[in-house]
Amino acid sequence: MSMPIPLKRYYRLLTIGIILVSFALALNSVVRLSAAYDELIFVDIGRYLWHSGDFTIQQVHYHPPLSYYLNSAFLDTLKVPWRINVNAQGHYGFWPGRAILYHGPYSPDLPLFLARYPFVLLFILVGAVLWRWAKQLFRREDAATWSLLFFALSPTVLAHGTLATTDFVLTAMIFLTGVSLWQFLRYRRFLWLVATAFFFAGGLLSKLTGMALWGIVPVFFLVTWWAAHRGSWPQSLTWRRGVVWGLTLILLIGFFTAAGYGFHSSPAWSPATRPHRLLDKIFFFLPESGNRLLYRIAEQPIPGYDYMHMFLYQIHHQEVGHDNYLLGHRSFRGWIYYFPVAWMVKTPLVTMVTLLLALVGFWRLRQKKLAGVSHWLRAVWLGIPVAAIFIPALFVHTDIGIRYLLPFYPYFFVFLGYALYAFKRRRWRLVILGALAMGYLFTALFTTPDYISYFNLLAGGPDNGYKILADSNLDWGQSLKELKVYLDREGIDEVKLAYFGSELPEKRGIYYQPLKCTPEKGVIAISATYWQELYQDNPHCYDWLHPLPVTKQVGHTIFIYDLR
Q1: Per-position DSSP letters for 354-416, written without gaps between them
Q2: Of 173, 395, 478, 525, which one has the greatest count of Cβ atoms within 10 A?
């Protein structure tokens, strides 16, 4: 199909330009923002794992190890021992990132950059795969470039695709799993089945939410089988063949997942738990020698126990709930409408308009086929991960960030490529899509580097975000370096500070006194999280500041009060 846009000869340059701009914006965020709260809990764990083989530390009980490996990929280039966070008793600390940032011979910015850089490279890789797959789906390179534009310049993607945390790794793995499976079912090459298993295991090794793949992938198989029997898929697909492929896929997933843990096994019970009361109660009739035999069996290492420990910990976390915030209200149980509200206020208005155009474009093509595959099937493939991530998120009790929806974003942005089919006249397409593209580009440029705290005009912009959402939607402690720049520019030598974050302000050259719960004079800086009364023993500690006018918002997350 011929390209309808006059710049068809330069689409490759346009695509490369989008990637370069997004890469520059990502690096700008990496360099200018201080560590987000979760980063210094996760950074440098990978080095400890692959040097020690010890998977019993608490961080591995929070999340699987893949993101830890990734954030440590370049840290061994530093002359900092991997045991820097292990104390004299051999215990591993809660803040390993602080150890490598502050106790080495380097500026804190260097290890933080090296920890984040692999995630930036992964972000660029996913963008390139997205463009290539969208081009294959639409058979139009302008549509693929359009999808890439919205992915690469998305404030939410730029926010979390540049942090050394688990969210973007999971996003990449779920997307690459879907692409690999499409290629396998389309072209029947065994290497694509291996790639599907590899990325599937990568999803399981990224975060508990990766378990969604156990629902997504079978539905992909079933939908494709149904489409093949209706003539909407160019390859035949029988039940027998599907079962063989499915079993092979499961075996490969098990192998790659076990490899992610170094084929490590851990005992569920140890000698320290003797006597094993549960065994004693069940087998009370056995003699002492029989109980000792049972103890030895129970104390044997169990493959996959570390993953199950993490699974049970996260399930318990969901049951207990979290300190959630929405529209000025707090709750430990969350709200079913939390994520719809979060998506509405954290998504650029340009994206919403483009979604409407994409729906129109898809409706115009709904009865057509392209290369033997119906557009209905293409849309269903793109919609399955969206539904699998979005619907369960409505019922969780940890409403702490739109990052929980991030895994469906690549599929969503590919669907936006249908916007190019919404227009019958070429002139209207050029004018409207050109205006939307420029508006989207300006949004990305003028938001940098504060993508975490981005809110659209519907929400009143980033300065009003604290009235709507909290935590990783707004303030994750990432503005400490920006606070230092502001204090130096204003000539402020000391500040009364209430900072929510994992970094240490004194290590960033900020001289401060802890902010008290009673009215004080001087220059006061308080994180939006504490202003919102979250994560404090005394949630009303800083209520005395609420009626006072804010002098400045640093990074939209730290409120400055000049009370001198």
Answers
A1: HHHHHHHHHHHHTT-EETTEEHHHHHHHHHHHHHHHHHHHTT-S----GGGGGGGHHHHHHHG
A2: 478
In the block, tokens 């994409």 appear at 358
Q: Other C-beta atoms within 10 Å of 219: how many?
A: 15
552 bridge partner residues: 560
No. of helices (H) and no. of strands (E), the chain: 23, 11
Beta-ladder partners of 330? 325
- Tell me the per-residue pLDDT of 376-403, one tens digit each, with 9 for 90 and over: 888 999 999 999 999 999 988 888 889 9
User: CA 249, 250, 256: angle at the middle one, nearest 5?
Assistant: 90
Domain parsing of the chain, residue ranges: 6-34+117-261+325-447, 473-563
Q: Residues in the chain with pLDDT < 70?
A: 1-9, 89, 266-278, 299-303
Q: Which residue in the block uniquely carries the two structure tokens 């519907």? A: 458
DSSP-derived letter for residue 117 is H
Taking the C-alpha atoms of residue 222 and residue 220, their distance in angstroms, rounded to an integer, is 6
- Listed in sequence order, the residues at least 6 apart from 32 whose beta carbon sits closer than 8 Å to its beta carbon are 449, 481, 482
pLDDT number for residue 273:
57
Tokens encoding 406: 């991030």
3 state SS of 407:
helix
Dist. CA 147–CA 415, nearest whole Å? 7
Q: What is the DSSP letter of 67?
A: H
Long-range contact set of residues 252-259: C-beta below 8 Å, sequence gap at least 24: 252/193, 252/194, 252/197, 252/198, 252/201, 253/197, 253/200, 253/201, 253/204, 255/197, 255/201, 256/197, 256/198, 256/200, 256/201, 256/202, 257/201, 257/204, 257/205, 257/304, 257/307, 258/303, 258/304, 259/201
Neighbours of 506 (CB within 10 A): 10
One-letter amino acid for residue 350 of the chain: V
Q: What angle do CA 182, 188, 194 make, to 5 degrees?
A: 75
Task: List the beta bridge partners of residue 92.
Answer: 86
DSSP-derived 3-state class of residue 92: strand
Reading the block at residue 478, the tokens are 């990432």
Contact between residue 160 and residue 167 where contact means Cβ atoms under 8 Å apart: yes
- Alpha carbon distance, N-terminus to C-terminus of the chain: 68
Q: Which helix (H) or strand (E) holds 62?
A: helix 58-62
Give the per-residue pLDDT at 438: 93
Measured between alpha carbons, how far is 129 from 136 in angstroms, rounded to an integer?
11
Structural contact between residues 389 and 408, judged by C-beta atoms closer than 8 angstroms? yes
